[in-house]
Amino acid sequence: MARVPCDLRFLLIPAAFMFIYIQMRLFQTQSQYADRLSSALESENHCTSQLRSLIDQVSTKQSRILALEDLKNRQDQQLVQLKDLIHTFESKGIAKLTQGGQQGPLAAVVIMACSRADYLERTVNSVLKYQSPIASKYPLFISQDGSNQAVKSKSLSYTQLTYMQHLDFEPVITERPGELIAYYKIARHYKWALDQLFYKHKFSRVIILEDDMEIAPDFFDYFEAAARLMDRDGTIMAASSWNDNGQKQFVHDPYALYRSDFFPGLGWMLKRSTWDELSPKWPKAYPYIRLSISMAMTFLDKIYTYWDDWLRLKENHKGRQFVRPEVCRTYNFGEHGSSLGQFFSQYLEPIKLNDVKVDWNAMDLGYLTEGNYTKYFSGLVRQARPIQGSDLVLKAQNINGDVRIRYEDQAEFERIAGEFGIFEEWKDGVPRTAYKGIVVFRIQTTRRVFLHKREDTMKHSGGNQACFVLGQKTPSIRDLYSLGHKLGQGQFGTTYMCREISTGREYACKSITKRKLISKEDVEDVRREIQIMHHLAGYKNIVTIKGAYEDPLYVHIVMELCSGGELFDRIIQRGHYSERKAAELIKIIVGVVEACHSLGVMHRDLKPENFLLVNKDDDFSLKAIDFGLSVFFKPGQIFEDVVGSPYYVAPEVLLKHYGPEADVWTAGVILYILVSGVPPFWAETQQGIFDAVLKGHIDFDSDPWPLISDSAKDLIRGMLCSRPSERLTAHQVLRHPWICENGVAPDRALDPAVLSRLKQFSAMNKLKQMALRVIAESLSEEEIAGLKEMFKAMDTDNSGAITFDELKAGLRRYGSTLKDTEIRDLMEAADIDKSGTIDYGEFIAATIHLNKLDREEHLLSAFSYFDKDGSGYITIDELQQACAEQGMSDVFLEDVIKEVDQDNDGRIDYGEFVAMMQKGIAGRTMRQSINMSLRKNA
């Protein structure tokens, strides 16, 4: 190894030190950097940890916010459900939930008194007559203004009420010369009394009466219903029991209520929230000056009024309205002191006080809510017949239905109102009782008159309510019937008891809410239900329809009243029937099925609930009701829509491929229930029921089946056969030994109802045939819809007339066994004009139900057709004219006159005409061969 020179070695020493120093500095620097880096990393980790903590906190808060939002949504849903539940309870009259959840008085009743002790006694006695049984709901007060000792003593003599005395010693300073101090005193008294009741006694509502009033029997029920309505609709400022035009000659319907832009007063109710608004600005007296337009603006007529006119100002009611009845629930007998006595004899004394106990808790007053009422009322006005002037209405007796008369301005309104005798007065641009400028009252008992200012008030009717569900205008049901208590509630409407005004007879009225008829199919279902009920009319075990009516909000179906309750309830009471009783019942039910099928109708919703008992004493006075799901069918037609009730539905309905055989299945289910008390196919869920129906297993092992006869089981198996083609028909069921053994064998004609009607028609004389054709042409579309379908089914070539071959084929399809010669006889009997075919009019006349002949309007229409000169008699000349119009030979007329003319005066009066129409067997004018055919086939 080479040696380093000595001088260089000395140089290596400092170089080594320098190297060591540099290394040490580098290490120190790296260490500082490492420390700084470590510190930075620690700081970053700390920040990250804090950030994560913050993120966790935010996430937690977000979760809490979401949870709170979810809780709020659930609470909102629960609140909506609670409101719906409260509304349901209130609408059913089950309970009244008050503020704070406590039951309490519905409203205080205060009688405002001053100095008429005798009047006060009459008023208090009238109120106590109806208030005493419900005193806790309507606490009674007397508020006396002043110190009249007789009034005070009389008030304190009653223990059933609370006495208040308003002693006002503050002097009255009138604002204008000549003003009456009394109006200031009355205004002060009203404010003091209402402040006491609302703020001291803390009532939520107050009903205000004056000391010269009597009340109606349903006064308190009316205000209870009005209270619910006011709670529901904030646009109703107050409810009144008074109608300014409530004189006897102008009112008729005790059930009718209206909204009004004009405050009525004289028995009214308001809420505390409304008083909170009115009390601070209550008027001192409010004298009101108006210009008398009716006096041709020749002078100023100064009328002193007070707080009620103040309420009629738009600035105070702010567009809100008032509910009032057509027939008053209060009567003002105050001849002394009422409006200074100037109006009593003309406007107050003739007022009609309602004497009908209306069950307001059963009434659906939803039509009075703001949106509905505009549609309802404008619909009434729109449907009324326009009339020019009042003369025609006042003088003519032959105008049917409501009328409307247009006025241009206040002057013309006052002139027309004066001619009728109603109130002419306006306040702040509004006529008394008016709604949207329209005043309504009655004339000639039932006809409504609408005085209206603008055509556009009638244009808004909106939605399905604007159209005629029935396809045509009908009379108002309230002109013909008075509605009573509720009988039942369905999905689309409510059934009420109703009474025919002209006869006093009781019926049932099914009122269908049009706003629930959302689709075209819903409307068609209602039309079809009415058509089918008309079509089936006359069968003893099917409820009879009396008529159908429509107003802007409802379709009303009036029908026979069955007061015995539902068969379903009777089954629950008994558990099950004896076999004999069950056989008798099922015979009735299957008889209904056979009648429907023979007339081309499939019921599709048979069940015990849809059979009513005519009375409570007879288990077998059954009537089938509710044809809402029924349809017309043609032989071989297949239906696919799933309808009916789960326990009773046939398997082929669930499979969407069925026909009328499904009704027999349903009747079989009913029979099973009648015998055993339980349905044959049962499960906890609807789907479970459907599965059991499709399996079709029938339990004959459980009780009471071991004790049930084999014959009954055999019949049930035949009715509940899963294959429709192998299932018994209705006719076969009625001939089954079990029914025959336990009852009378069914007396069934060989052919269905169409053939029966043709036979009946062939036994009538020619005049009756012509009359029936007149009646047929006057029937509504609903009454002939089913026959129209039958005519179409027989008229296979769509020629508009039925030939012999088509009649023969059609009767064969409906099960006829008549021979060709017999069918030809029927053809000739129905062919009035001898054209060789049966046209539509002839077919309708031939198949019309005989029960149509019992209707007075049809008989009058037919008689008037023949009585050309309106003399009250039908002469041979008029019969010849009728024959010429119908294209018939008149060679038989002398025989007709001889047969029908019972008093032998050579003409036919109305009584003889009715007797002929209601006579079931023809006389000498009918062909002997047809009579023989009838006897042979009867």
Automatic annotation (TrEMBL):
Residues 481-739 form the Protein kinase domain. It comes from Brassica campestris (Field mustard). GO terms for cellular component: Golgi membrane. Its cofactor is Mn(2+). Its EC number is 2.7.11.1. It is a single-pass type II membrane protein. Coiled coil: none annotated. Transmembrane segments: none annotated. This is non-specific serine/threonine protein kinase. InterPro entries: CDPK_Ser/Thr_kinases, EF-hand-dom_pair, EF_Hand_1_Ca_BS, EF_hand_dom, Glyco_trans_13, Kinase-like_dom_sf, Nucleotide-diphossugar_trans, Prot_kinase_dom. The lineage of its organism: Eukaryota, Viridiplantae, Streptophyta, Embryophyta, Tracheophyta. It is an enzyme of class 2 (transferase). It catalyses: L-threonyl-[protein] + ATP = O-phospho-L-threonyl-[protein] + ADP + H(+); L-seryl-[protein] + ATP = O-phospho-L-seryl-[protein] + ADP + H(+). It is found in: Golgi apparatus membrane. Pathway: Protein modification; protein glycosylation. The keyword Zinc does not apply. GO terms for molecular function: acetylglucosaminyltransferase activity; ATP binding; calcium ion binding; protein serine/threonine kinase activity. The keyword Membrane applies.
